[in-house]
Automatic annotation (TrEMBL):
Gene3D superfamilies: Cysteine Rich Protein
PROSITE patterns assigned: LIM_DOMAIN_1 (PS00478), LIM_DOMAIN_2 (PS50023)
Source organism of this protein record: Taeniopygia guttata
Keyword Lipid biosynthesis found: no
Xref: InterPro entries: LMO_RBTN_TF, Znf_LIM
UniProt keyword terms in alphabetical order: LIM domain, Metal-binding, Repeat, Zinc
Gene: LMO3
Protein name (record): LIM domain only protein 3
Domain LIM zinc-binding: 22-84, 86-148
Pfam family, one: LIM
Length: 156
């Protein structure tokens, strides 16, 4: 279920006003221009249809705009705010694109989720961690696991 509307050229369109003047959904003033900009089933001054974050104009015919939570956004800001990086490999919830993530091989993790999945130990820069059966493990748990399986690390 998409929670945004992507408008293509067929949606952000210049239309001829009919007899009744329309109010602009941006500034609430009447639109007296020769053409109206129609987007999201509302009418706009060309200058009033802009990104709520960076103020860039979205009024050009054919421009793509995104809306969510009553915000109108340009593609860049939409992705920054509401895009997703992927699912956290530990808690399997979505990770928003603006959040910092930890990566291990092909997996991404919330910062908070990146810990040994057996003892919850957090890792600092330089700490060793291991991926086994897609689980993050600290060195201790990894080596214990190996020993249980009978593959004791070789001691030289
Ligand atoms: Zn306006
Ligand atoms: Zn923007
Ligand atoms: Zn997570
Ligand atoms: Zn551990």
């Amino acid at each position: 279920s998409p929670d945004f509307i992507q408008l293509g050229s067929s949606h952000a369109a210049l239309v001829q006003p009919d007899t009744k003047p329309k109010g602009c959904a941006g500034c609430n003033r009447k639109i007296k221009d020769r053409y109206l900009l129609k987007a999201l089933d509302k009418y706009w001054h060309e200058d009033c249809l802009k990104c709520a974050c960076c103020d860039c104009r979205l009024g050009e015919v054919g421009s793509t705009l995104y809306t969510k939570a009553n915000l109108i956004l340009c593609r860049r800001d939409y992705l920054r705010l509401f895009g997703v990086t992927g699912n956290c490999a530990a808690c399997s919830k979505l990770i928003p694109a603006f959040e910092m993530v930890m990566r291990a091989k092909d997996n991404v993790y919330h910062l908070d989720c990146f810990a040994c999945q057996l003892c919850n130990q957090r890792f600092c820069v330089g700490d060793k961690f291991f991926l086994k059966n897609n689980m993050i493990l600290c060195q201790t748990d990894y080596e214990e696991g190996l020993m249980k399986e009978g593959y004791a690390p070789q001691v030289r």
